[in-house]
Amino acid sequence: MSVSQDQSLQIEKTVARVLRGARANDTAALPKQHTHRTPQCLAVSRLLALAKHGAVRTTDEQQHLDGCAFCRHVFDTFNGIQRSPVLDDDTTTIISFNASEETTRIDPPKEKPANDTPPTAT
Amino acid sequence: MRPANEEQREHQREEEALIAAMKRGDANAVECIYNRYFPIFLRVAIRLTGDFHHGQDVAHDAILKVINRIGTYKPAARRTPRAWFMAVLNNTFLDWARRMKLRRPEGFARDDGGVFEPPADEPSPHDRVEAEEKIAAVQAAMMMLDAEQRQLIMLRVYEELSLEEVREAMALAISLALEPQADDPSSAYTYSQVGGGLYRARQRLGELLVEKWPDLFP
């Protein structure tokens, strides 16, 4: 489908405005931290020190590391161990999108059928 | 009020200082970079992947790579830390896109992008609904672009990076994929590629919007 130059410029302006609006929404609506990170989690800098700089972990830290997928993932990443992301990424599709806890999602507006589409027989 | 570019330069100096501190092993600098860039990576990655959880994983892996590879960051003329950080995010997104392509024969593009509430300020209910629909349509159309076009639009239009930063971010992402130590990506992605790529991406996006949502984009 070809779009005239005027139309194209108009759409470009609209898209820029829409995307800037979306960015403002996203900044306000999205969490500031990973949703699996808890107040009990170790600081990222501490995990870096443990994994890369040979810092000695305390018993509490070890216990937390053993039971926390988030901290374990960060620690392993710094340690150079390739693992799946924090969430189990072993899915075959990305259809299972459910961000209702974090955001409100709306579906894209319906596409308008082309004028020459014949009505469906019932 | 200070001009925007002065503010940007101050921001840049601050980030250069944080990077230098990280290289010296300063724990506060690590936390500072993580806390500053995770939210930025998250909003861009969700828009790139069209999915909250995948976006979160991409953003998180990217910020850990930034921290892990900070030793390879080299200041260069006209290079900003932001462009380098975005290059790492780009690179992580491309890895994800490749994995998704392998898993889904039809590719990773979705036509039902996730979107968020519009700003809760002044617009009337009608304007609000229209704004929501436009955001949803643009996100859906973005998911029909290829990965490179989507990155260009996100960096230039959504994150409002300068053309130089976009070029650096695209070039460095290619370099990171080939050779983590590479520090001269100047030949990897040229200005004309940025300009041409952006032109084609905008053109395609416009065509998709007019074709599929003519009521919203007459």
Strand content of chain A is: under 5%
Question: Low-confidence segments of chain A, ≥5 residues, pLDDT <50?
Answer: 87-108, 112-122
User: What summary fits the major beta sheet of chain A?
Assistant: none
SSE ordering of chain A:
HHHH
What is the global morphology of chain A? Answer: elongated
Shape of chain B: globular
Question: How widely separated are the two ends of chain B?
Answer: 38 Å
Low-confidence stretches of chain B: 105-121
Query: What is the oligomeric state here?
Result: heterodimer
* Helix and strand composition category of chain B: mainly alpha
Radius of gyration of chain B: 18 Å
Element order of chain B: H for helix, E for strand: HHHHHHHH
User: What is the straight-line distance between the termini of chain A?
Assistant: 30 Å
What report would you give on this structure?
The complex is a heterodimer of chains A (122) and B (218). Chain A has helices at 5-29, 44-52, 59-67, 69-78. With 122 residues, chain A is mainly alpha-helical. In chain A, helix 2 (44-52) crosses helix 4 (69-78) and helix 3 (59-67) packs across helix 4. The relative contact order of chain A is 0.09. Chain B contains eight helices and no strands. In chain B, helix 1 packs across helix 2, helix 3 crosses helix 4 and helix 7 packs across helix 8 (191-212). By secondary structure, chain B is mainly α. Chain B has helices at 4-23, 27-49, 52-68, 81-103, 125-142, 147-158, 163-178, 191-212.
Quick summary of this structure?
The complex is a heterodimer of chains A (about 120) and B (about 220). Chain A is mainly α. Chain A has 4 helices and no strands.
Which structural traits does this protein have?
heterodimer; A: 122 residues; mainly alpha; 4 helices; disordered C terminus; B: 218 residues; globular
Q: How are the secondary structure elements laid out?
A:
The complex is a heterodimer of chains A (122) and B (218).
Chain A: H1 5-29, H2 44-52, H3 59-67, H4 69-78
Chain B: H1 4-23, H2 27-49, H3 52-68, H4 81-103, H5 125-142, H6 147-158, H7 163-178, H8 191-212
Helix pairs in contact in B: 1-2, 2-3, 2-4, 3-4, 4-7, 6-8, 7-8
